[in-house]
Amino acid sequence: MALRIAARLPRLAILGCVFLFAGATLTYGAASRISATAGPKTTAPAATPTVLVPDVTGQAFVFAKGALEDAGFAWHVVGTVHGYAVNRVVTQDPAPGTKLKDTGAPTITVSLTRTSYAETGEPEDVSPYYGTPVVYADVLRTATPLVPVPATPKAAEKKTPVATKPAATKPAAVPPVKPVSSTKRPPAFVVADAPKEPLKEMPLADRARLLSTWLSAHRKPSNGAVRRFLYQNAWVVTGARFGWWHGADALRLLIAADQKAQRLWGVGHKSELAARHALAEVDKRLR
After folding, report:
1. Which of the listed ranges 153-167, 179-193, 208-222 does the model predict with the highest average pLDDT?
2. What is the DSSP letter of 238?
3. What pTM value is reported for the model?
4. Could you say which of 3.40.50.720, 3.40.367.20, 3.30.10.20, 3.40.1550.10 is the CATH number of the domain covering 50-139?
5. Burial category of 171 from C-beta neighbours within 10 Å (exposed 0-12, middle 13-18, buried 19 and up)
6. Where are the domains of the chain?
7. How far apart are CA 228 and CA 268, in angstroms?
8. Could you tell me which residues are beta bridge partners of residue 50?
9. CA-to-CA distance for 244 and 208, rounded, in angstroms?
10. Which of 206, 193, 198, 195 has the alpha carbon at shortest distance from 247?
11. How far is CA 234 from the centre of its chain?
12. What are the strands, taking DSSP E only, across 26-97?
């Protein structure tokens, strides 16, 4: 019996070493996985989007509100002069060029002054959608002050050789980008205090013609589509009354577009009447 046990001892010792080695390997692997997954995950903070306030001071209100809406802002008229299309913006808050946090539709406050044109239609003192609060982007930034490090006497005495830089080559001159429809547009007639036609915008006749094409692609009305339709109408009517280039032709095209909107959407009757009144006024001035 003792001889059998003695003969089996080497086998038992080998099996024990094998089990011990396997257990140590499993323990080390589990510890490695735990330490790998336990580390904290660091994610870079998302950059806060910002928007830049456009300059609408001095513009007719119909153009100012369109510029604000196109830039993603809401607007609100304050003061005794209401939001008629022909009135002019005298102040805005925040100031032009201010960087704001993009809260959705930051509300720009404007005050207006009356012009020599008659206030017709219904005034608009608030934007057609809800505005969001104004949050200045500069307030959110925290600047770390830079502490100047005084130079040691030894460092001040050492003179470092100035490296000579190779002569910089001048970049090739880039021709300026011409604005849209940069050709001269003589006014149909001169009106006192009327703003000049912006050459960076398309001519009135092209705008009215494009509106008719746009209606063909939007046969079902929506809130956004109706707002766009009314804004384009107000632009053409106001520009024609200012004496802008080919305003009478643009009004005739606009009347056709208004009639098309009535057939497709069932709206546009008031816009057609406003265009017809403006056309009668423009034709009278052209005589």
Report:
1. 208-222
2. H
3. 0.55
4. 3.30.10.20
5. exposed
6. 50-139, 204-286
7. 12
8. 101
9. 14
10. 206
11. 22
12. 50-52, 74-78, 88-93
